[in-house]
Structure to design on (469 residues):
């Protein structure tokens, strides 16, 4: 018994025969399930003004991950809320029932709403809309891995489209760790088999990080390498996002 | 004995679609449109539900029809019905087999192994759709009929009529949920005439979309 002194606690060590290896996701020539190299991101597509009813909106497609975000406000805060000198940010992330291979599986990610809030809060100049609330609602249409980074990047674009004052656009990228390999922008298959993950949300122009999430076991050099990978990818992603905003402006002027 | 299963139809209005919809509480229109869709699809008899049967009395497909409104800008039912029909016309039922335990298994063409079981249905197949229903919502205001209203128009004027006709011109349903304006026979006939015109347009549009999707 564990309570008795002198007795050794029961331990379990898997014998070599029962220690099944995790099936390798990568084939011999080090290619990923979708044929990308380890440090290659999926192609990204962004478009603003997807929802007419919203103050601002954006649609994002990164590989097969599809996300749509609407921004409403600044509008009057709920009566129950206390007076605030600065504006409030309210975020909600939901999944369609058909977003995941198994129907309704997307509802597992309840924490995404608060993570989106934390990622965007540092980039928005909340002082510019006191006593009011900005609502950011995201809907994942198809989940194919790296959902949260896509949601965050898309939400930042929607906020810009809504004319909400921000310090900078927010770009987000994640990295998965497999033994000694780091793979950027993992797909669902890779996320399910990863040893650890690292997600960075940053403001590339200011070189500031608004959110850093690390799960699993990482060594210090690996974290540094992963962070550098993410920051480089964020800078490239921000360029695509900026060009999307410029396109939208030039289209409206025409 | 179970031969087939009626598909579950759900119309969702997530908070992204309108400033009125908030997370946590479903939109008022959502269950109404779901019920209306369910009634229209079942009463139009456009699908033979026996096609969803696999083994008589033992197994059948369950078809879930989830429709998401991304931007609520009026005539929600019309858009929902059109998207439902487009989805059903694109639906492919995968080929499956029954194993020794009487369980249904998917037959994959990729694996080179010789199939031990005889497939219940030999190949991927599509549902047979006949007499497809299409709808048009009109607003009645004084002596005017306003077809296909926007959300703003719907909020100002309270009386609307939804007419559902199938491709053969038969009336499937007529829906007038109250409102201060009385719908006279002539007004209803005018709405039906507008719908008949709309049915032709939508049917052509759907045919083009389907032919573009086929490889």
């Amino acid at each position: 018994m564990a309570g008795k002194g002198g007795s050794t606690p029961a331990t379990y060590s898997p014998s070599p025969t029962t220690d099944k290896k995790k099936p390798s996701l990568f084939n011999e020539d080090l290619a990923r399930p979708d044929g990308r190299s380890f440090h290659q991101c999926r192609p990204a597509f962004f478009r603003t003004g997807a929802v007419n009813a919203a103050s601002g909106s954006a649609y994002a497609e990164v590989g097969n991950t599809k996300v749509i975000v609407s921004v409403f406000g600044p509008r009057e805060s709920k009566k129950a809320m206390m007076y605030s000198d600065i504006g409030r940010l309210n975020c909600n992330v939901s999944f369609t029932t058909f977003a995941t291979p198994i129907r309704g599986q997307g509802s597992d990610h309840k924490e995404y709403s608060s993570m989106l809030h934390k990622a965007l809060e540092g980039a928005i100049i909340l002082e510019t809309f006191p006593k009011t609330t900005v609502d950011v609602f995201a809907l994942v249409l198809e989940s194919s891995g790296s959902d949260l980074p896509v949601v965050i990047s898309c939400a930042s674009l929607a906020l810009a489209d809504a004319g909400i004052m921000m310090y900078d656009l927010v770009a987000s990228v994640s990295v998965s760790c497999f033994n000694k390999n780091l793979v950027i922008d993992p797909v669902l298959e890779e996320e399910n088999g990863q040893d650890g993950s690292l997600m960075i949300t940053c403001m590339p122009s200011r070189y500031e990080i608004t959110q850093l999430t690390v799960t699993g076991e990482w060594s210090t050099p690996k974290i540094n390498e992963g962070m550098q990978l993410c920051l480089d990818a964020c800078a490239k992603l921000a360029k695509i996002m900026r060009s999307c905003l410029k396109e939208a402006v030039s289209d409206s002027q025409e | 004995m179970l031969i087939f299963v009626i598909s579950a139809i759900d119309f969702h209005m997530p908070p992204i679609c309108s400033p009125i919809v908030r997370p946590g509480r479903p939109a008022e229109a959502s269950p109404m449109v779901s019920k209306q869709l369910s009634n229209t699809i079942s009463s139009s008899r456009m699908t033979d539900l026996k096609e969803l049967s696999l083994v008589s009395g033992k197994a059948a497909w369950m078809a879930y029809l989830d429709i998401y409104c991304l931007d609520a800008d009026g005539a929600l039912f019309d858009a929902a019905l059109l998207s439902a029909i487009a989805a059903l016309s694109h639906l492919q039922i995968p080929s499956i087999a029954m194993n020794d335990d009487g369980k249904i298994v998917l037959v994959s063409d990729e694996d080179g192994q010789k199939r031990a079981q005889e497939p219940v249905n030999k190949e991927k197949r599509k549902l047979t759709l006949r007499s497809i229903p299409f709808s048009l919502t009109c607003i009645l205001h004084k002596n005017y009929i306003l077809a296909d209203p926007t959300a703003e128009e719907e909020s100002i004027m309270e009386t609307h009529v939804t007419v559902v006709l199938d491709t053969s011109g038969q009336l499937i349903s007529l829906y007038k949920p109250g409102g201060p304006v009385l719908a006279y026979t002539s007004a209803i006939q005018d709405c039906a005439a507008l719908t008949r015109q709309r049915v032709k347009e939508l049917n052509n549009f759907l045919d083009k979309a389907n032919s573009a999707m086929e490889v």
Notes: Confidence is low (pLDDT under 50) at residues 1-6, 110-115 of chain B. The radius of gyration of chain B is 21 Å.
